[in-house]
Amino acid sequence: MARAELEQSADVVTDAIDLLTRDHRLVDELFASLLQAAPQQLDPLARRLSKMIRIHTQIEEELFYPTARRALGDRGDLIDEAEHDHTEAKQTMMLLESMTSDDPQFLSTVESLREQISAHVATEEAELFSELRKAHLDLVALGITLAERRDTLMDVLGLHGDDEEGAANMREMQRPAKGSRPRDEVTK
């Protein structure tokens, strides 16, 4: 995704589901960056990943899931499953946060967390989001509320909007376009 597209998507909240889906893609990019990173980048990337997942789960648990549960009524089992997934992922994140990249279990723990998050995201996007699109719910207003809370949490945890571009920028730096000069030559 080009930088201009990232800036546009970060500024425009279409609705709650779009915001959460954008977060899912960001976490995917952070996992990809982490698994391709140089050794000295592993610890800072793992911390950033953990913070982004924590922010995402917090806005879902505080705002999105309670609203979704009310809107879905008898389909509350979807929320129960999502909350259970969060509990498991938080346990794995606590383990990851207790390690440094020197730990022999570091990469396997990252991979375990990636698998947990991927399974959660797949279920959430295929089932929960689909059901909520059918429900009579003001997803735009909820999206604005989620975005405001997300921004506050990003500030509290020392992350900012430009950190969202970090994974995409890192990917671009790792794979310069053919015929282009390396990034550090361009900025000199």
Please tell me about this protein's structure.
The chain is built from nine helices and no strands. It is mostly helical and 188 residues long. It has one domain. The relative contact order is 0.17. The N terminus and C terminus are likely disordered.
First-last Cα distance: 25 Å
Quickly count the domains.
Answer: 1
What helical percentage do the residues reach? Answer: over 70%
Task: Let me know the average pLDDT.
Answer: 82
Which percent band covers the strand fraction?
under 5%
Please report the number of helical segments: 9
Give the overall shape.
globular
Alpha carbon gyration radius: 18 Å
Structural class comes to mainly alpha
Low-confidence stretches: 1-10, 165-188
Q: How many beta-strand elements?
A: 0
What letter string, H or E per element, gives the SSE order? HHHHHHHHH
Q: Mind describing the biggest β-sheet?
A: none
Key terms for this structure?
9 helices; disordered N terminus
How are the SSEs placed, and which strands pair?
Layout: H1 3-11, H2 16-36, H3 39-72, H4 77-97, H5 106-134, H6 139-156, H7 161-164, H8 166-174, H9 183-187
Q: How do you describe this structure in short?
A:
80% of the residues lie in helices and 0% in strands. It is mostly helical and 188 residues long. The two termini are 25 Å apart.
